[in-house]
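Design request, tokens follow.
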């Protein structure tokens, strides 16, 4: 507990220090906020009284692409993430992990429709949206959502479904940190609290704005910035969720690992993965599904979606190679577990950058992430002293931080990036790497501090209400039998 409090205080001080620096150096949130195809934006239903003579209608190709992308993100979670995590635990806990991921996905899908969507994307505000779209009120088959190109929209129902999958996988990622020892009821209760108080405000802060059609001149840009999410207004770039998804989940997992405590026998008994075959299949499904996650975040079937697709391919390959080679040099043998973990590290790191950087920048990001995440699950993990069972922080936390910061570097047109689009001038604007990195540090620091504080409070509330951990005898027997009354294998 003392170690966790010290780390939390350090994170807070870093966040506050970054805030001071950003106040001094961050560029004003002018028209050059995001590229025309950038991060998931707030849907902006076209009001009839403000519609042009011919209101923009969704393109069938965009609708088809976004439907496929949504299915791919579902595939990432069920069965991709479930299988990846399931293979990493001991056989006696296989079904418990599958159950947690499957039910969390179901739970968040429902909560997203009830109140999650409106709080994340239902109107202006620095930290939360409004309640105008509670229970999806007023949304019909004719409702449209803004993209990143002026005059281009998609079906709002499509946008709602796509964003629901992001919320669901983010919450499911966290369970890997406290696998094999947390009560199922506690997992679900924590998920509801954390989703409401951590995921929704982070999604709003980073991704909400009124859309490009609302920007016509400097005055309208100022109005859009005033109503946008707080980190969007700071100029933070996050194409598909480096801060909202990965840092957010990674920090929550680390906090949980501290507060729940180490597994019985940790450091004394073998806790090796029971099925690396299953883990490799899960990692492969994650990689395939991640093309929908990243390229789909463009919201249109355009060249930027193709860029995000290619970057997701090459960055992941680079991270797999760098992790494998580094492990080979350090331990004498390359492992399947290392290669699969390297792939996930690359996917995480390229997520915030995939639509902003060029392919060579993506390769560099992947190479760096592979090595740093390998350190994250070994050296850093020993320093932190937490039993992060499936290395949620070491891969998603570290990889998300690396990717978010390097986005500010490789978005530079001089390094092959797209630059940052100016919606007033309708062209790529002037770029300052220093200012952009400061904006990225704002996002990283905010995600760390916000998630740490909310997670700490949420775990304490859950502990008081239902308790966090199963009894020792149940943990030793395995959660498959003691929590769910069934086993994964009969042999």
């Amino acid at each position: 507990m003392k170690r966790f409090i010290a780390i939390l205080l350090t994170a807070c001080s870093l966040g506050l220090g970054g805030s001071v620096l950003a106040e001094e150096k961050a560029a004003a949130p002018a028209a050059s906020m995001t590229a025309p195809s950038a991060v998931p934006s707030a849907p902006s239903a076209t009001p009839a009284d403000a519609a042009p003579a011919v209101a923009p209608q969704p393109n069938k190709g965009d609708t088809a692409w976004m439907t496929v992308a949504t299915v791919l993100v579902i595939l990432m979670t069920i069965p991709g993430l479930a299988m990846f995590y399931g293979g990493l635990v001991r056989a006696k806990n296989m079904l418990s992990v599958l159950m947690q991921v499957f039910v969390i996905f179901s739970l968040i899908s429902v909560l997203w429709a009830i109140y999650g969507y409106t709080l994340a994307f239902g109107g202006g505000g620095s930290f939360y949206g409004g309640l105008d779209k509670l229970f999806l009120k007023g949304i019909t088959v004719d409702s449209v959502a803004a993209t990143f190109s002026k005059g281009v929209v998609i079906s709002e129902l499509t946008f709602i479904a796509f964003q629901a999958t992001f919320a669901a996988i983010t919450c499911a990622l966290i369970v890997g940190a406290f696998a094999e020892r947390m009560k199922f009821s506690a997992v679900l209760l924590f998920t509801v609290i954390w989703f409401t108080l951590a995921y929704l405000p982070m999604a709003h802060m980073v991704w909400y704005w009124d859309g490009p059609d609302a920007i016509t001149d400097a005055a309208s840009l100022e109005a859009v910035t005033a109503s946008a999410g707080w980190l969007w207004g700071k100029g933070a770039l996050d194409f598909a969720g480096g801060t909202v998804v990965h840092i957010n989940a990674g920090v929550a997992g680390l906090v949980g690992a501290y507060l729940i405590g180490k597994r019985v026998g940790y450091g004394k008994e073998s806790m090796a993965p029971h099925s690396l075959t299953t883990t490799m299949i899960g990692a492969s499904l994650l990689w395939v599904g991640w093309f929908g996650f990243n390229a789909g975040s463009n919201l249109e079937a355009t060249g930027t979606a193709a860029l995000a697709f290619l970057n997701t391919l090459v960055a992941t390959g680079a991270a797999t190679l760098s992790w494998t080679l580094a492990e080979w040099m350090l331990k004498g043998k390359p492992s399947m577990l290392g290669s699969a973990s390297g792939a996930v590290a690359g996917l995480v790191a390229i997520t915030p950058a995939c639509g902003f950087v060029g392919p060579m920048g993506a390769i560099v990001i992947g190479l760096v992430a592979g090595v740093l995440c390998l350190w994250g699950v070994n050296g850093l993990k020993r320093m932190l002293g937490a039993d992060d069972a499936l290395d949620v922080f070491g891969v998603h936390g570290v990889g998300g931080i690396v990717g978010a910061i390097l986005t500010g570097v490789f978005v530079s047109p001089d390094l092959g990036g797209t630059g940052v689009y100016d919606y007033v001038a309708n062209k790529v604007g002037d770029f300052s790497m220093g200012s952009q990195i400061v904006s990225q540090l704002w996002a990283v620091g905010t995600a760390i501090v916000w998630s740490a504080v909310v997670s700490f409070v949420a775990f304490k509330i859950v502990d008081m209400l239902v308790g966090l951990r199963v009894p020792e005898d149940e943990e030793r027997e395995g959660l498959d039998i003691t929590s769910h009354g069934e086993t994964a294998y009969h042999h």
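Comment from the thread starter after seeing the answer: thanks! The domain at 38-49+57-479 is CATH 1.10.3430.10 (Ammonium transporter fold).
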